Amino acid sequence: MVTVGVTGGIGSGKSTVCDIWAQLGAYVLNADDLAKKVMVTNAEVKQQLIDVFGVESFSDDGKLNTNHLASEAFEKGRVKELNAIVHPKMPEAASQIIKEAEAQGYEVFVYEAALLLENLEPGFLDYIVLVLADEKHRIKRVKERDRSSEAHIQQRIDKQRDLKKATDQVDYVIRNNGSLEELEKKAEIIYQNFI
């Protein structure tokens, strides 16, 4: 089984590329979804979250209080504290899911993560794909998707790493400044290379 990491800034189209590959038969794992799962199922992580961010981190029925954690992490500038608790447990959790996907007969496993290049362990994935798009396209897409203001989106973009400077760290670059059909063609060609 081929393992592939996909990254890109907000509104670049990385999730759309992953959706296209899922339709072609890939197993797709989203890092944010995995992180939420780790926060709820890993007892050590759960306890650390309560110790650092308070009992409000979980509701009475044990569900993750994402609003509280997002408020603590993003509005109070404590993202590094949250990442320090969750990120060390991610490779082990992802490896387990990779094994399960392989056992189920998947030929391609895709790991989608915004901070992939920052947190990647050497040799963890066979290929890295970077999805890039011009800022105006990214703003337009996020505006349509999230109904956010342009100023809010710009703030989020400004906080992210400039991935245009990371092209030498990846195996494939998909430039997504055209139509969905163009993106589908580019994604399909790369997928064929994987298999």
How do the helices and strands line up, and which of them pair or pack?
Layout: E1 2-8, H1 14-23, E2 27-30, H2 31-41, H3 43-53, H4 66-75, H5 79-86, H6 90-103, E3 108-112, H7 116-119, E4 127-132, H8 135-146, H9 150-159, E5 172-175, H10 180-194
Helix pairs in contact: 2-3, 3-5, 4-5, 8-9
Describe this protein's structure.
The chain has 195 residues and is an alpha/beta fold. The chain has two domains: 2-26 and 106-194, P-loop containing nucleotide triphosphate hydrolases (Rossmann fold), CATH 3.40.50.300; 34-88, no CATH class. Helices cover 54% and strands 13% of the residues. The protein contains ten helices and five strands. The protein has helices at residues 14-23, 31-41, 43-53, 66-75, 79-86, 90-103, 116-119, 135-146, 150-159, 180-194, and strands spanning 2-8, 27-30, 108-112, 127-132, 172-175. A five-stranded parallel β-sheet has the order 2-3-1-4-5, sandwiched between helices. The longest helix is centred in the last third of the chain and has 15 residues, at 180-194. It is globular and about 50 Å long.
Question: Which descriptors would you attach to this protein?
Answer:
single chain; 195 residues; 13% strand; globular
Summarize the structure.
By secondary structure, the chain is α/β, with parallel strands linked by helices.
